[in-house]
Amino acid sequence: MRHEKDDIIELGGDLQVAIKYENLLAKIASSIYIESASQTSTCAWCVYFEDIEQDYGLEPGFIDDDVADDIETALYGFFGEFIASIEIVGEKEADTEREVNRYFDITLYTNFCPGILEEDCSVEYSL
User: Fold this and answer.
1) How far apart are the first and last CA of the chain?
2) pLDDT, tens only, 35-72
């Protein structure tokens, strides 16, 4: 579903709060980048739509194609200099052809992955 930046999105969970769509995108993009940069040991990381929806109290299926594109745009907008690529991936169920296990496959440049030092072109090695 296409959302406008000023749309108010209600978040579930214990707090029962709402947030502007553009602010939600910023929060999701930030958390995806932080998780990807801090957890990867290979420059690549996958973040599942279902996990994002659970973390933010969003209804299952909230992240459709339009929202996924908006999140990707926000990631490139805020962190574009650090990101080599983003791929939106989904697997099809054999019976229904419905996409399941949808996720963002993020690849970051080595310089922006704090845990990677080995074979890092930004680090000088002496033997």
Assistant:
1) 56
2) 999 999 889 999 999 999 999 999 998 999 999 999 99
C-alpha 64/C-alpha 99 separation (Å) is 10
- Write out residues in the chain with pLDDT < 50, as ranges: none
Please tell me the pTM assigned to this model.
Answer: 0.83
Chain position carrying tokens 């990707």: 72
Cβ proximity of 51 and 31 under 8 Å: no
Is the CB of residue 3 less than 8 Å from the CB of residue 9? yes
Residue 118 CA, chain-centre distance (Å), reads 25
Domains of the chain, with CATH numbers? 8-112 (3.30.1370.230)
State the Cα–Cα distance between residues 76 and 70, nearest whole angstrom. Answer: 10
Which run of H or of E encompasses 60? Answer: none
Separation of alpha carbons 119 and 124, rounded Å: 10
